[in-house]
Design brief:
This protein is of the alpha+beta class. It has helices at 21-28, 44-63, 77-83, 85-88, 111-121, 167-187, 242-253, 265-269, 293-298, 321-331, 359-374, 388-398, 408-412, 431-443, and strands at residues 32-36, 39-42, 67-68, 74-76, 94-97, 103-106, 130-139, 154-164, 192-196, 206-213, 219-224, 257-259, 276-291, 301-303, 309-311, 313-320, 333-334, 337-338, 350-353, 380-382, 402-406, 416-420, 426-429. Helix 11 links the parallel strand 19 (350-353) and strand 20 (380-382). Helix 2 (44-63) runs antiparallel to helix 6 (167-187). It is globular and about 80 Å long. The chain starts with 20 loop residues before the first helix and ends with a helix. The protein binds adenosine-5'-triphosphate (ATP) and magnesium ion. Magnesium ion is lined by residues 209, 283, 286. It holds the Pfam family tRNA-synt_2b. Residues 38-341 form the Aminoacyl-transfer RNA synthetases class-II family profile domain. It catalyses: tRNA(Pro) + L-proline + ATP = L-prolyl-tRNA(Pro) + AMP + diphosphate.
Length: 446
């Protein structure tokens, strides 16, 4: 993509309404535009990151054996009357009447609808286990939408629902979700710690929230800091192997890590003092096992091998896809702007032409662009007739992890400069070697 033809409405001034760094940088980098409180347009750069995050979520859900589908944003109120939540949900639910005076709502979540789909088509244990999920816009009429995409009213969420024959199978589905979430966040360059959570309006007994540590987070967290060193890495987990999946969950949930809602001071005090940490965190996901709460209320039953009919065991599992953009920026930025982890960056690399109009520089940039595209790595080429300083400032703000700088002087020596956004370190290389290096770096991420 050539910057001269792109739509990147960068702001020079800090927007006054932004209280936290991720919101400020998302506005300044031209990623989002607010249309109403908590409702945003996703401008091209923001949209690219959103799609990238969505893609990683899909890949890891599919790897875990979960099946994507798509449910609508608008739902009939009658489904929610069956579960009893139409009245319980309160003012966060946006209620709408259609032209025939039928009660509708903009879905804040989808337990009722997925249970309806299940009961219409599945009636035997032979069709289990089954986990269906979608990535769809949600609406919650939050009292205080704030911090940009962190607490929106309209937001993009992955929500998945498991259907199982018994409690053990449902707990295996719960564990599968935990492992797939750990892998998802790691691919995004995040450390998200599973913390024991209190069950909210969805109800249930087994539930963990995933928190990214950040001092702007809305949750207070208490943890043993050794938990932050745990990594899944690239180990292969067999998602069908119950013991193996449970083992990984144990590894990540044995050390103390809780939010203020479940905090237990006596247990916390048993952690060696040097490892006790109190901080703040951003909730980027949550998993729930709630058993038969919805299946019983809505008559979603299955026939067991011995011929009896039982309500299906369920759980629901969410990831805050749009919130993740904010969380990643909170965890990865400096005073110049965003620093995207390679896994989610909108463009893998930026090309800065120091002397637009210089025949050798223009030609070398075009050749780099072509070589990268041929490797499936689309660069953002700043081909504007701007000062070098302005081009660097834009690249630093939008946070591409790698930059190739091309100028007439370097080209005389046969080199370009490859710079890491994170470390700030530069290296002179031939253009071919620079492309090679970028290809190697991204081989591990795509
Ligand atoms: P919160 O406690 O932050 O209000 P929640 O527990 O009500 O969130 P869930 O029902 O668990 O939210 O939804 C799954 C995920 O969706 C959350 O973990 C969070 O990452 C994301 N999410 C929830 N509400 C919002 C919102 N208003 N804006 C953006 N993302 C949200
Ligand atoms: Mg939650």
């Amino acid at each position: 993509m050539r910057l001269s033809r792109y739509f990147l409405p960068v702001l020079k001034e800090d927007p006054k309404e932004a209280q936290i760094v991720s919101h400020r940088y998302m506005l300044r980098a031209g990623m989002i535009k607010q249309q109403a409180a908590g409702i945003y347009s996703w401008l091209p750069l923001g949209y690219r990151v959103l799609k990238r995050i969505e893609q990683i979520v899909h890949e890891e859900q599919i790897r875990a054996g979960h099946i994507p589908l798509l449910m609508p944003t608008l739902q009939p109120a009658d489904l929610w009357r069956e579960s009893g939540r139409y009245d319980d949900y309160g003012q966060e639910m946006l209620r709408i009447k259609d032209r025939h005076e039928r009660d509708m709502l903009y879905g804040p979540t989808n337990e009722e609808m997925i249970t309806d789909i299940f009961r219409s088509h599945v009636s035997s244990y032979k069709d289990l286990p089954l986990t269906l999920y979608h990535i769809q816009w949600k609406f919650r009429d939050e009292m205080r939408p704030r911090f940009g995409v962190m607490r929106g009213r309209e937001f993009f969420m992955k929500d998945g629902y498991n259907f199982d024959i018994d409690r053990d199978s449902a707990l295996h589905a719960y564990n599968r979700h935990m492992v797939s979430y750990l892998r998802t966040y790691e691919r995004m360059g995040l450390t998200a710690i599973p913390m024991r959570a209190a069950s909210g309006p969805i109800g249930g007994d087994n539930t963990h929230e995933f928190l990214v540590l950040a001092n702007t987070g809305e949750s207070e967290v208490f943890y043993d800091d050794r938990v932050t060193a745990l990594k899944l890495g690239d180990r292969a987990v067999d998602y069908d192997n119950r013991a193996e999946v449970a083992g990984v969950c144990d590894e990540f949930t044995t050390l103390y890590a809780r939010t203020d809602e479940t905090h237990d001071a006596a247990l916390f005090d048993q952690i060696p003092a040097e490892h006790q940490k109190v901080g703040r965190g951003i909730e980027v996901g949550q998993i729930f096992y709630f058993g038969t709460k919805y299946s019983e209320a809505m008559g979603a039953t299955v026939v067991t091998p011995d011929g009896s009919k039982v309500p299906v065991e369920m759980g629901s599992h969410g990831i805050g896809v749009s919130r993740l953009l904010g969380a990643i920026i909170e965890a990865s930025h400096d005073e110049k702007g965003i620093i995207w982890p390679e896994g989610v960056t909108p463009f893998p690399v930026g090309i800065v032409n120091l002397k637009q109009g210089d025949a050798a520089a223009d030609e070398a940039c075009a050749a780099l662009e072509k070589a990268l595209l041929a490797k499936g790595l689309e660069p953002l080429y700043d081909d504007r007739d701007e000062r070098a300083g302005a081009k660097f400032a834009t690249m630093d703000l939008i946070g591409l992890p790698w930059r190739i700088t091309v100028g007439p002087r370097g080209l005389q020596k046969g080199v370009v400069e490859l710079t890491s956004r994170r470390s700030g370190e530069s290296e002179e290389l031939s253009p071919e070697a620079a492309v090679e290096r970028i290809v190697e770096i991204y081989a591990a991420h795509r």
